[in-house]
Structures
1.
Amino acid sequence: MMRNSLVLAAVVCLVGSASGRERPSTDHVLGPFARMVSPSAANIEWETDAALPSIVQWRAAESDLWRRSEDPTPMRRHAVTIDDLDRAAVYEYRLVHSETQGTRNVTPAYRLDTAFDYVLPSPAPTTDPFPPDALSDAYDSVARRMVDALGTRKGYCLIVGVGDGRLAYHLARRSDLTIVAIDEDPQRVRAARETLDQAGIYGSRVTVRQASLPEAAFGPYFANLITSDTMLTTGQWPAEVSALYPYLRPAGGLLYVGQFDEAAGEPPSLDAARQWLSSAAPGGEARTVVEDGLFLVHRRPELEGAGRWTHQYGRADNTACSRDEVVEADLTVQWWGRPGSRPMPDRGPRNPAPVSANGYLFSQGDRVLFGMDAYNGTVLWSLQVPQLRRANMPRDCSNMVAADDTLYLALGGYCVGLDAATGRRKHRLSLPHPASPATHDWGYLASAEDTLVGSCVKKGTHYLGDDGEWYEDFGEPNVARVTSDRLFAVDRDQSSLRWTYDGGTIINSTITMADGTIWFVESTNSAAADAPTGRLFDEVQRDQQLVAVDRRSGSVLWKKPFDFSKCEYSIYLCHGDDNLIATGADRNKVFHTYALDAKNGELLWEHQARAQKTHHSGHLSHPVLIGKKLFINRMVLDTATGNVLQTDLLERRGCGTMAGSNRVIFYRHHYHGSWDLQSDERREYRAVRSSCWLGTIPAGGLLLVPESSAGCSCDDAIQTSMALVPRSKVGQPAPAAEQRP
């Protein structure tokens, strides 16, 4: 949440290479968060527990000369802008917390890379090419209402019927939208191009094509806003609503059409459009607005049957299945582009998966975070956050969760909620007493309804993977589990504490939540509780038990002693069909899988099998659970009986793990691959590959693949972010499936 005042006007001075003594600051800081606000300026925000002046020192990476921006007013929420920065250059900056008697308390130096401003420049019109007339105010007013109703300034707008280009001009003034207009009349197209070029925005903000629908051949779902200029002045629909609708972004795309009062012609008939919309998009809003004219406003809901990927393994149930019914195995490119490989960490340390909800896609780089439009690839915002880093997901849990219009991040001893559309901070949540940022970090993170579930991890426990660690071999530096000493739940908006659980030492990779219950494996060994770190192996391999607590109250439902110590390389827990599935491989690369009754922890069946793939992390594979089928170790097991249903599963050459929808499993062989569970057809999408853990997620009717292959030397790896859409949505003929072993 931003302070009420504007961004601080900084006082800038040169401070030299050394000025008095310096010592590390002991003040607890949330942040900093660095955001490029122009090609030459960055805004630095942070929070402190005590009211302090806002002081930032910065310098070019190769310079010894520090510069300084400050506001002397003591405050807890800080925002300082540093400017005069070079494009695509690396800087470092630090926060100064106090200066007394020649001693300066400073934070470590943080990296700032100005190349990570991936939001495209959006020049405003330089001149108004339209002389004032009776419609001038109406155009400006309707453009303002459209942008306000849309709820974001970024993305794509489709104008069907360009008119003289005036609506495009006013939308460009009011937003940062990329505007694509089409019209069948070549004279109108030529005139609109010339007028918008005179305004200084043609080619950079606005493009006009001579085309009609559907001949324009746009891809599906790309437009955040669809409207018409010609309809404003004539009342005539530019195309059937059914022809416009395929291009409208699901989960919030806005259809905003109508006619001005001053326009000639009969008012448009909106009843038929409303009727069609109610049948095509059940639950979607379709309302009439009477202001300067008569307008129909419709916000497209999420695709029926589309899934979300909100947690590390799909949902908090850890099934690695999004339950998406829309995405198919036969895919084609929806969009591709930024971010590329430069801001990404090495793919080897098995980094957190991207997450997606409500049409947004969130991807972590190397201490850089991107918020994107899942349907058209627009980079809505990017933040450079030094505290944002975790690795070795097979032995830990992710630090981010997507929930409706908010992204939650675990950062040091805090959790912050960011607005999905803008990246602005909305919420700050703290660890429950007596844990504090001095002693603990926020570990596990999950969301359900209006609740966040978290855990307390001893400071410095999380893996960072900054040296490209592989975490593949057996040995405590690789396989030690990240553990928590407390589980708790808070109200995710008001941050009030609901409950805490203090039992044994909890293994983070096992925390699983579904149907109002949280399950996990913990150790009651006193050596684990007394250890100075939460990264443990031998200590938590003894005295294990499976625990179930009520998510709403935190009360213990049951505890069941159980020995999972054969799961040495890793241990996973997932929930489906009233069963809990625990699995992991031992040091001889034999998989051990246990099914337990979720209601009482009783063992239902167990299964052992040697790893069918012993290279590139085959022995680390996380299971995929779809309905009553468990996909693990190139086998399919019946979750009710443990019987082996299939043994000819796809071969995975790469080191990643699988992700599933209800109809398809996505994986990496050489490149991105898909396996249709009904037809058994297997395809690869050449020249692109994902991470060494989980980088491809089926969500929203798409396969979302933000770049995560940085550092790989594999052949033909095009390092780009992309989304793939079912070919059937584009109307392209399907090529023959490429059979793979």
2.
Amino acid sequence: MANQSGTFPLRKYDWYGGSLEVRWSVTDRGDNRSDVYAALWAKTNGFTTYGPSAYFTFRLGGSDGNWTGAVSVSGSWKMIAERGRTIDHGANGSLNGIDIGVLAGEVYGTSFNSIAYDGVNLIYVNATDYVVLPYAPYNLRIAGGSVTATCFGVYYDRSSHDSLDRSDQAQWATDSGFTNVVWTDEGPQGFTQPCTAAPPFSLTPSTKYYVRVRSHTSAGWGPWSAAISQTTLPATPPGLSVSASPSGTSSVATMSPPGGVTGVDSYTLEWRLQGTTPWTAVTTGTTYTVTPLTPGLTYEYRASARIGGYTSPISTTVTLAQPKPNTDPGDYFDGDTASPASGDLDYSWSVPASPHASTSIATAKGVMGWEAEFTTSGGAGVLYRITAGIFGSVYAARVQLSRDATTAGLRAGQQDLAPYWTDVSGGSPYIGSISVRPSRSQRLAAEVTWLTTAGTLISRSVGAATVVAGGTWARLVGGGTAPATAVHAVVRVIDVSGTGWSKWLGGESIELDGAMISLNEQFPYFDGSMLTDGVYVYEWSDPAKPNASTSTRTPIEQANLEVLESQRIGARAILDPACLPPTPPRPPVIENACVTDAALWRRAIAAIPTGMISEYLNVVPTFEIVTTTKAVNQVRIRLYPNPTELPIDLVDLSHGWISEQIISYVPMHTVMTIDGVHQRVYAEVGGLEAISADHLLYGSKGTPATWPVLTCGQAYVIVADIPVELTQDDARLYTQLTTRY
């Protein structure tokens, strides 16, 4: 505003005159105050009551202003005094006026005698002339504890001397240039927050937002403040994994921050027995041990994260079955006396120094030479020994899953350490196999791992994936040509993604047995502790290390084979693992353990029409049983006469058969011939030479076998039965008819 000046109206007495110059200077509009300067000039006309001189004084700013000292003037203009004062404006920015006081008089001796006084409000300032653009707000800061997945608050400051008629505006954008403004807060007063506004506005989780503020007065909008930014928290739960202890009495929960979060103040872990309420909760750090738990029971776990004042969503529930290593919990045990029926357990006292005065513990035994690996997303588990495997071995291995998986990632089998690996020669072909029995159907494959001399991984060869039915043993095969630098190899089972695969769940298990690697071709399973079968002698390469060195199979010389066959000293070409050979001579009726009736049969039926049976000559059937990847027990073949040649589905098969022959055991990959012409049974196992199998043929209920003869030119029906747990692909029956002349 320009300086203002005017003539001071002191005209009451014609003997003096005055002129008042007022200068207006705005020094701090932001602080809503102004500086005012005034100078008083005066003169006389030379005629006064007491002489040629008069004295003047004045004050600036009303009654609280200080008078200047009296100054004598005469007929010439003289500046009496100059005064300055800082004056605050009103709340609306206006300056109502400046009070000027002027006092004229004479001096008599030392006294000042007032002759005239004028007091006026000389200058007025209109608000519209004074109000200017406000300053930008400053000191923007995130409100402590306000950050959540959908909201946060921002405090800011503004000049304390800005006009009170101002209003503020805050902008929220997803970019620093504020080209994408998502929310505008009209009228905040030092604080802006979308979720508490009216109406409220929700931010997007895991998104960075920029905030700025400006102020408005009647003069217009002021400049924007510097922007502040903050990323909202993710609306995701924390990561949660739970692993059970091998003893089954506790579990360890491990939490990780939600994606995009670097720091978590605390976690809330909850657990309960599956299907029950309520949840037990605890506030904890990254890991927490849940105890005591009951082995064999299934528990559920979930977790949430606390970040400042924000609590994340609750994680997906993790279900985990506690291992139950004591496979025979009905047997009594204490810390120093093991049950004879529990050879897979070790017993100890919880406080060894206090036997019979502390808790006794049963712990599953480890299994030598086996290991199990899990990827982070492939779950977790423990490996321990169980009694009896598929091949009648004393022990086998079991992997007990203790944590849910999200992807395929289980690898279990031979340990890649001496002496458990197999020595190989680079460039040669090797076949690896392993027998497995999962607790439920799973897609699995055999994997051969090739290793250097030091045991360093070179590569892996994976066999064809197979969906193995739950509760059944299957032999998986894999392998290939060993890399040139390979010196050792191990075989393991892996789970393979694809049709038939589903994630492992805590509490599920898979049993392992019969890991074997052979050169050039796949052999039927054998180890160094198998009985001599009349064809081969089985030994450990290091007799001092049974079950811990390479097993060998050496053919018996043909001459010895003939002696063994002629003398029948008890060694047999094929051993039925469910029925050990009886002491010779063979009794006329064997124990029923070798021949049992299956609870349910899987049946195949075929018709022999009349045209294939001579009316006058005898016809003798020969049967051929072919197995694939599974051994087959209790193959039953029955012949029924069908004189009227009824359709197969109308023949009464509940009784009336004329012949029943039972094969108690057929190994896998075997062609077994029941030769009706020569009345002999022989088998070709694994494509090798034929060997005797007469001892595996029985008649009804274990009686000695008889040989059927078909005659009279009539039709017959052949019925072949195998246990229902097998499939038709596991065993196929072929029939040949020979006419005797």
3.
Amino acid sequence: MSVSNRLRFTGDDGVVASQLLTTKLYIPQARALVARPRLVERLSEGMGRKLTLICAPAGFGKTTLLTEPDIWDGRSAAWVSLDEGDNDPARFLTYLIAALQTVEEGVGESAVALLNSPQPPVEAALTNLINEVAAIPDEIALVLDDYHVITADPIHEAVAYLLDYQPPSMHLIIASRTDPPLLLARLRSQGQMTELRAVDLRFTPEETATFLNEVMGLDLLVEDMAALEERTEGWIAGLQLAALSMRGREDISGFIKAFTGSHRYVLAYLAEEVLQRQPEGVRSFLLQTSILDRLIAPLCDAVTGRSDGLATLEKLEQDNLFVVPLDEERRWYRYHHLFSDFLRDRLCREQAGSVPDLHRRAYEWCGRNGMTSEAVNHALAAGDFERAAQEVERMGHGTFMRGGMMATTLGWMEALPDDVVRSQPQLCLFRAWAHLFAGQLDTVESWLQDAERELGAKEETGSILGEMAACRAYQARLQGDVPRTVELSRRALGALPEDDPVLRSLTLLNLGIAHRMSGHVEAAGRILAEAEEVNREAGNIHPTLVAICNLALLEMIRGNLHESARGYRRALRLATEWGAQRLPSAGLAHIGMGKLLREWNDLEAAEHRLTEGIELSRPGGIAEILLDGYVALAQARSPRGDLAGALKAIREAERLLERVRVPRLTARVSAYRAQLWMTGANSEAVDGWVQECGFGVDDEPDYLKEVEHLTLARVLIFQGRYDWAASFLERLLGAAEDGGWMASVIEILILQALALRAQGETEGAMKKLGRALTLAEPEDYVRTFVDEGEPMSELLHRAASLGIARDYAGKLLVAFDGGATLPAAVEATEDTGALSEPLTERELEVLRLIAAGMSNRGIAQRLFVAVSTVKKHINNIYRKLEAHSRTQAVARARELNLL
């Protein structure tokens, strides 16, 4: 088809300049309220191309962004604000020419004359216009705002013609809610188009903070802003509507948690700007499919009873109607969270009676297509509890105990009526497990007893008895009863079938953690290593990562901080390889790294890691991980002078304990709070803790209670009761040395040195401190010394003057003054990206032994391999590191942070 044929149309009676609404040609005066240099730079760079397309749903700041003057970079801007009336081609082109005339007087007059003829020759008019624009010496940017209102094909063809023959001095900018039909793929492939989409326009966390606190005049906490940014997905209009709704409210945090698409400002905006503008078929599709968390064409067809799901989803994406693609193939989608909330609210208002039937259609399709979790959710929503229970049972332990599913499963169990759960032993066990993982220990036993009753009534035997023992073993560990944990775990392993890798590996992991908790490091190491291997072979990602993290924690207990860091980094690397970066077990690895970074005095990085770990762990609902994270976060904030932030983290832990009610963990968090009180010199509160804690100097040393015991020793020193502290610490030291808890040995030696110093026994203090420094220096301990404050600073000055670990003591003294972390202690990543071929785990192990100065024969004996095998590993190391000697290999490895 020729250009002439494509552009032929019949206009109305013509549009003359005197009939134009001049306000449509004004550049909006609203200035961008938040500086967005990253977007301004992209738009400025794109001015040398033919087209800039800014395409996003309503309320994403498209027009506001274009009012930023820095975009134009010396160019003149011609602007047309389009509306539905501009679908007449002659009217559209007349406005376009009028906009250009605001920049260059008289341009396009011959084209206007042609357009006002009875049968406007559009091609001739455009040709004249293009020639006249090409003669303008200045560069011009033509903005067509709200282009989504244009539906007339002749206008799209005219704009396409303009783009084909656009003079170099002209740049076209289209702002639209939908993609215009303008052969965008061709422009994209030719590098002639700059695009900004919703993902680009949404506010970043920093922009959100500026907008809410500076522009909207609110004073929100960081976590509240983060929650609101996540809820709105950076949708600018959503943030503004939320800010308007928050004005005058006292409980801002509570409002943000409850903020949905049913709030009146959001509801009114989406109703007016989005829903009522849609054809009835699209409107019905949106409402009916709003019950789905994820959209795919066959599922939408099953729910709506129609057969146009694929075409409708494609149209929704093309129209930018608040749908978010979830895969590269554009098969799966979801609605923007607030839009989804709004649609569901409107569905319940208008078609409440149809909602259960829509959910029934959804769960039938999901059940047939292997989407078991979704089937459960829809069955529960439909009130079909029997079907939901069947789906839960069908899931089995492999899905049920996967990391990240614990909180979800607890929700399912709570939603099922008790009589439905009690009718099936396996459902009773599932509910017991769900309560167990959530830390609700006082309700676990009753569900286990219900399972036993149902089991007896049905005369069933088999693995269920082994599972009950495994569940009770897990409960015993959380309660701190290590002997019972060991007994029940062994009973479970004896009863569980060999072909049940999920429960067997979980039980093995529980047994290893119990030994670690009790300080039996050698036994714990053996069992945890076996647990890792078994879980890895079974494909159990979450338990595998938990095992690796517990092995890393064992190294921390042994005082081997660098080896511990390697373990946590290995867990994070495997999580990335397996696509499991968002599992709670990945959160456990981040928390472990955060604790190490805190010890190495990189407090900012530590807080970042710990915050990340807590966020990842929260959905899993595993109380132990969360509590460990909150306590470590408090310890990272306190040295930076953020005592309020530290206390807030402790309060979060205490709020969690109100729900999970685990006495052992409650005692530990209480001990850490007492340490903060000592930091703040709150003697009255410290005295109260001593009266209520239930621990005394006559207690037998027990690693399970070591935090509480060391806190008590600190309190005795704080209170000046040095003799009691000395006697108690000596017994704790003996137990720590016998158990191989070298991190504890270092801390106890430090406390002994402080107690002796306070009593004026300087020589004895120096001996204790000297031994602590000797043990700590290879692993670059920092905060364990520096946290003790001025008394420790005095001791370190004296140690340095006496030549006791002079260099190390000097580095620690630098840290007292806010100096940088120790060079060897900065967070290292095993950056094998610089290598064409990464080192294997065994090659890394050989490399570390080389760095330690061991001979080939010594390495072979250490690793229980032949010397020839060691030589083969060393040759591989040399090749990969491009080294020719041990010295070169070690130096290269240190450059890459491999050591």
4.
Amino acid sequence: MLTTKIRLSSVIFLLAVLSGGKGMAQNDAPGELKAQWIHYRSTHPDEKVFVHTDKDFYLAGEICWFKYYDVSAQTHKLADVSKVGYVEILDVTNKPVLQAKIGLNEGGGSGSFYLPFTLASGKYTLRAYTNWMKNTPAEFFFEKPLTVINTREGYTPPSVERTGAVSVHFFPEGGNLVTGLASTVAFKGVNAGGIPIDFTGILLDDKGDTLLRFSPLTMGMGHFTFTPATGRSYRAYIQPAGASPLTADLPSVFQEGYVMHVDTAMGDKIQIDVNTNKPGEGMLYLLVQTRGSLKIAEGKAPANGHVTFGIDKATLGEGISQLTIFNSERQPVCERLYFKYPADPGRLSISTDRPVYGSRAPVMVKGSSGGANLSMAVYKLDSLQPMDQSNIYSYLWLDADIAGPVYSPGYYFDRVGPETVAAMDNLLLTQGWRRFRWQDIMTDKAPSFTYVPEYRGHIITGKMVDVRTGAPTKDINGYLSVPGKWTQFATCTSDSNGAVAFDMKNMYGSSEIIVQANTAYDSAYRIEIADPFSEVYPTHPDDSFALPLRSPVTLTEHSVSMQVQNAYYAKQAQQFYLPAAVDTTPFYSHPDLTYKLDDYTRFTTMEEVLREYVQLVNVSRRGEHFHLWAFDAPAGVPFDDDPLLLLDGVPIFNTDQLMKYDPFKIQKVDVLTRRYFLGDDSFTGILNWVTYKGDLSGYQLDPHATAIDYEGLQKQREFYSPDYATDAQKASRLPDFRNVLYWNPNVHLEQADKNQADFYTSDLPGKYVIVVQGISKEGKPLYGMTTLDVQK
């Protein structure tokens, strides 16, 4: 099954157009298909995510810093679709050990994880995605391996070094082997950790006859060509280097079918040959798309079971293109991937003011980026922390459009030549058939999505449940509040499935949220809040871990560095702040009237407070119950219904209980004397009573209200870098054992403006690497690095 990462929503629409239900004439099919495809793509954005971490080797007790890039899958420009990014660190069992929601602004955001001492030594995976991306398989999510060592815990290394099982898999070009039709067959050999292996192989038929010998070109991959015979099956005898031999079966041979072969070594042209042994085959269609953009749609009638399509490489977009053949019944029968190298290598030229520095010396980094959105890390290279192999350039052009990890992706881009081009072709040949079945989604219905883009901010979802039956319930109003002086409040109505969704813009930090239905009308409902993180996990290779015992001195140096940082600079690392652009006004913006009760004579009852000095609000009784009447100032008449009553932003539906509350706990009251619209709801005025601490101050909520500790968007932590500008600062006795000299998620490098990154070296000598990466305004992934030496 091919695991190409074509976007599923695009495929659904494509098949609806290709299906015969629309009565489209064959002669008009290509033009109409292109026009409708363009229209569809304009209304259905797709995203890719990349996360730049400061390094990839950590000790428990250190901080992992990261920059979050969210880009359009089609253009690679920073996307302003999702306002929230999800980041997790998973252990080897796919259990999340750390999670965060990152606020995004115009496609960019930043965050950090403190790695606690509860983490065991081992391999971890950092993965990232948006809520919109959860509509697609987890193979779409960004993933990056991390190593964490806990120097406080004991560790027993394995008694025997584990090399892992070896496997070799075969992938016919186009998808299938067919009797009597010559096929190119790609192969890939890896160990249990997904590491490519070297081996030799012999292709045998079911009689034991040797047909050919083969071995990988590079990265454990290669290909051969042979023609399956009638009634024969095939297997391979594999001899891995330094391991026991094994056998592997080739895919089954079909008696009838289609075979495609793509010849890319024709200068500016690509030739696609399709052969079939099915009698009476009519039109065959070729569709080519690059990153969701349809490039070619044409059809030809085969002659003697053969048809050839010619493509100008110039018509294809840069990156991975998907070439799919459909038969006359509009069913996909063959598929192949092709990679067109970008014209711009995306290299950032960066430099330092000199190559060698002393301790606590200033470093100036210069470069030219054309105003790109960039992040920069400077970290020490040693036997435990080698050069981080991941970068945004290779990820967006290659990894993001291929299922599963790509081993050493930088190899395919560092020195592009005949060998790397051939290796790239083998990599794409080994992607197999699609991860979805076209026939399962051939429908004229518009695609539906479970998860919506978070255009404004974090959306807290859940389900409205009838407490009497436990069943989801529709058409019930729900309310969500974040108690506090900064009033955050949202409403919604449960849909036909009982689902609720609260749009919580600018909700930062850890908070208690309170969710409830309107108990004034019915107390039979409660709201169950859903986990916003994805619970779908891909399968990872068995990458066994062993403590790096060969580097005890280096590990000790890392441990001392971590302990010194925590002992002397922990306060700086624990300072969090809200982004400057966050609006902290209440959800109703500015009230019409505000009464600070300490400015007035204090009364002992809430009724007296309202009657004596809260204007435009009237208190009355209906029988034994209190009712409040707000004045509609714009209309000049009182409202007929009660206003929305809030205590620290939490709706209070029992007016009698609120009137019994101690007014000496109230600091102020905000009043809106006008109709207020919030989502699908409207309120006849608002009274928000605010306590001194914003914590409800002992008010007893309705028992059907649910209070939950909830993590909003992560507050930002500032990377601390000492300043040694003066001799006195440089002479400080505080030790400086930083192995990460600098981290800046929003760095600017412009030689013309003489805008440069400045930082200071630490007391640790050694070689350091400076890594800068990001996205240009035109959507070009950019990557650059250089090194510097620090000497005593």
